[in-house]
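note to self: dont lose this again. the chain is below, predicted strucutre after it. 749 aa total, dont forget to put it in the shared folder this time
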Amino acid sequence: MTNEPRSACYGAMKRNNKNIGLNLGMAILLVWLTMFYLSLQIIAFESESPTKRVLVLYWYNKDYPWNVAFDQSFQAQLESEGVGNVECYAEYLESDRFPGEDQSDLFHRYLKQKYADRQIDVLVASSDASLDFLLKYEDLFPSVPIVYEVVKPPASNRFSGSKELTGIINLSAYRKTLDLALRLHPLTEQVFIVSGTLERDKRLEDQARIELEGSDIKLPISYLTDLAPDQLAARVESLPERSVVLYVWQQTRDSQGRLVESPEILSNFSKNAKVPIYGMSTPYIGRGAVGGYITTAEASGSQIANIAVQVINGISARYIPVEKATAVPLFDWRELKRWQISESALPAGSVLRFKEFGIWEQYGWYIVAAIVVSLLQTCLIGWLLLERRVRYRSESHRRHLAAIVDSSRDAIIGINPDGEILSWNPGAKLIYGYSAAEMVGKNLSVLVPPERMKEFRERLKNLQTGERPIEDYETLQRKKDGIDIDVSVSTCSPIPGKGDVTAFATITRDITERKEAEEAQRRSDEALRKSHSQIQELAARLIRFQDDERKRIAAELHDGLGQSLAIIRNRVTICLGNISDIDKVREQLEEIEVTTTSTIDEVREIAHNLRPYELDRLGLVHAVASMIDNVRNSSSLEVSSELGSVESILTPDRETGIYRIVQEGLSNTLKHADATKVRVSIEHVDDELIVTIQDNGRGMRVVDDRDYGFGLAGIAERSRMMGGMFKIDSEAGKGTTLIFRCGIRNHGN
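---
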């Protein structure tokens, strides 16, 4: 491909990317413009939508707590509903502070002038007094719908038919509050309901009767209505036990005309009350009331705002049903303790006020946090101490291990998978002769003889492939001086290092001495097996010798002694047959004497061969000398001797053994040597007895004692029995020398 097409392609791609970028930018700009346009439309719509005005008429002054809480909740709910532009106005009737018709008329003129040029869309009456004022002066806002919060709903004859009203009924939880009180006080026998108004019209009592009509309460209910504060206090104080008081609402004026509010009246009689008091209004909590289903300013403000929003949105007030004010279970914690009521008995979602928290309840989370922090610190400190201890033990273990490695006489060598030496302990220097400086960094193969190199590479390959470690593998390795030694090699499991590096530890032990000991043991075992074989062979020979000896003795007894005895018997028989022939008898007796003498000599010869009597009577030297004389007299062999004094230094068993050795030696010379001369010597040199028999015969070939005949085997066995040494020096044509040596120290043993 040439550069021209490539450039063309690149240009096309660049143009496409540019077009894509422009299209994306245009799309983003179009979306932004659309959103901006919609925002402008929304703003325009809101600006074009008419402003709605709401006027709230409160009973008491603007600082009254109920009014403050109600106003905050009311406005917050309006904002959350998002009904557009809404202007809220607040006015305060304050008929408690400024009573009388004149004040009402004055306030009427004030409102009429103030709102003459302002259209009010919704009126809110936050009390019965506020609603009464608005209904009395309908000319103020003749066609404006009213949303009210009252204790008693207005009668239909109190306003014109065109007037639209709706709202919520306050203090309407009579039944729920009494049911709650009776459940918390199951032993109650009577109920008292306290109420009163400035007009003394009993409307609150009427409302209570209506609310409780048809309820499940079977207890007698008494109404304490419109009593003066002092009378009411005395009456409540004298109530019977197992009674419950429901305080609804009461206002009155004292002797100076001052208005006495409902919470103040409650405080006046509750402190001396002997029975629990329940109520339905927030100000009662903290004034002596246990609690009840309470209407709160916050809940009422939100509930009224919801109804006002419906009216603002165009729904006619007459079509919005009147509701009961929302009531929540609210209690004074101190009164619960006073009347021994458990918190667990309260309804779900109950609110407690004035609760005195203990240290744990006030600072529980702080205590828990402190404990957790302390535990964490303790755990951290413990962990650090444990880590320090583990590290110390690890370091101590490492030092001990290093000390063991350094003090070990075995060669402990660290290598990598390629066989490179990483560490070299003093034991390795002791075995191989190389120092650590000479070996670290070199390959372990420098210790391997050439003939073992293939074997070494195979073992190293097994380590690299992760096969099982080497254990007690015996081989040859070469020292620095070139000497090959027997060693036993073991390898430990791979030791992971940093990265992919892995190390192996090899432990090498010099087993040269063990091998030598094993070889010595092998030779000893072989010699033992050989000796055992020789003993078995000697035993077989001895049995054969015994059989031969028995045959010989039997033959001698049969052929010699038996024949002689037979001759004597025959001659005795002849004598008995010729007893009268004196000459004949004498001749036979003379023959018997000769035969008897010959027989006696023959018996002595047999006995001498079995056990030389000279040995017991004359001793070893004289017995040997007698043996030599017999050999001289019975053969042409020239016998010389040199017999030292060895009397009283040998045990009888040893004397017999040495005598038999000399006897067997001379016998072998006579039978096999073809010698003309033989020399016998017995010497006592230091603590050793040396017996030598040397002849000038034809000699013999001897490789080991398996080449011995029966006689020489007997000599060798007697030599072993006496703890001596038996040796034969012989060459063909140069004669044979038999040497026997044995120690005579502690010969008594």
